Amino acid sequence: MDADSDVALDILITNVVCVFRTRCHLNLRKIALEGANVIYKRDVGKVLMKLRKPRITATIWSSGKVICTGATSEEEAKLGARRLARSLQKLGFQVIFTDFKVVNVLAVCNMPFEIRLPEFTKNNRPHASYEPELHPAVCYRIKTLRATLQIFSTGSITVTGPNIKAVASAVEQIYPFVFESRK
Amino acid sequence: EVAYSQSTGQKEQLSRCLLRGIRRVQDLCKVLQLPTVFEETAVSYFQRALQHPSFHLVSLEKKELLGGCCVFVTCRQHNWPLTMGTICSLLYAKQELFASVYLSLQKELGLSVPALSLADLVKTHLNSFQLFQHGANIPAAFVEDKEKMVARTMQLVELAGETWLVTGRHPIPIVTAAAFLAWQSLQPAGRLSCPFARFCKLAGVDLPPPAHLRLKELLDILLRMASQLAWLKVFKLDKKTVVKHIGDLLQHRIFLLKNAFCLEEGEEQRAPGEGSAGEGSPRSPPASGGAAREQGCPSAGQRQREGGRRPLLPPCLLHPRKRLRTAALSAADCAVTGDEPISDSEIEQYLRGPEEMRAFRKAKAWP
User: Fold this and answer.
1) Domains observed in chain B
2) Which residues of A are less than 8 Å from B317 in CB distance?
3) Does the UniProt entry include the keyword Metal-binding (chain B) (predicted)?
4) In CATH, what class is A111-181?
5) What torsion, rounded to 10 degrees, do the Cα atoms A141, B167, A11, A182 define?
6) Which residue from A75, A110, A121 is facing B337, i.e. has the nearest CB?
7) Mean pLDDT per 10-residue section of chain B, whose length is 367 residues
8) Which CATH architecture describes the domain A16-103?
9) Closest chain B residue to A81 measured between Cα atoms?
């Protein structure tokens, strides 16, 4: 196996987090009363609303800020956010769907080999940090992409980044380094 | 004439918080019996950290932990084997909080912290064992020579490292388990009947919970290796009797590992396309990876008897506990653009009807 040979790796997106604003004040009590699939957290001042399709959970604040989590693609996140905004419109609020942005993407990728973590950390300081007393994986940060990778000895890599493109670039960048330290 | 405010005297005034912190760092270094140079380095790190905005306005609890973190970092930089568990117990601190302060310190000051040396940790940890001298609580047959025990424990820890038992795990449970096996194997006659918990009690050390699992894993590896030794093949070894032969197993470690497990890359035959399972289709890596490795092992299918070669993999891949990720993207999901029109009927499922609202209001006793 050669690091330069074409290896197709599946990157499975497990979570996409997005935010948007409704540009109006939201009455959380009214949402809790009239909305289905709603949990009202009065002590922290927010409402959780779950949609079935796409399967997302939205956290809604009275200021009109909404965070949606659970989507498995950026498009699905946008669709879920729009459905949620539409639900709020139906409840009687003057919602304008604005400032939509994907803020975080979590993905998992599996290398077809195990990785020697101490060797990998030694070869990749200071980007790599490995503290087995705290966490079994190496934490590798790519500042330029604002991406963080958790690299496990089994070859499984968890990537978080601001968008899907950054996540894909991070996996491309890390591959030669993990390949060097493979078992 | 120079005004007092312009003289160096005023600039040398240290805040009470800083003075207290420096004293705490010095006390920690004395308790751990560290060399003077360590104390100077730790104090300088503490002073630098406290001037940093990230640590200047934190709680007193965090400032106390900051001193411990500075000592910990200094020890690691000088390859002095000190674990987080030791520092946390000295500071009566929660490990999660210590971890967050430690990682912030490393990041903000840009400190390079080398990995903990297992070899040094073995020596230091065994120093705390009380089995090397005769004592009232320790039967004569249980007393052991320190040098022999350190040497054998080191070999067992190296074996654990080569067989994926160390990576990603806490080091102390592995060292404790290896020490127990080393101690038993040096004089098996009187010691095989002594359980692990009693050994730790006699040695005066804690028995960390994962140590039982590490012991089990080490014994599994040793049993596999023993199945490849010609003069042991006739015996039916189990987890107790294999301990008697640890000396021989360690002596021929490289040969036995090669024969007992699929080690060579060529044997594992992972094709470049194995990683991809087609466009948009799910991939369950541990299962498919495991299957690939088993297929790659020569005659793995034929030699499925006890003692046959198995892949040398991290234990979590051999015995996966987690439900594997099999999220299949359907064609409809792939076609989502995010801008599809949304019909009213879709939204109405998320709204309560009037009767439902009345019932809910009654149940919640809302006015």
Assistant:
1) 16-109 (1.10.472.10), 118-262 (no CATH)
2) 114, 154
3) yes
4) alpha beta
5) 90
6) A75
7) 60 75 92 93 93 83 91 93 91 92 91 88 92 84 92 95 91 95 93 93 92 94 89 82 92 88 52 38 37 40 49 79 59 71 81 84 75
8) 2-Layer Sandwich (3.30)
9) B338
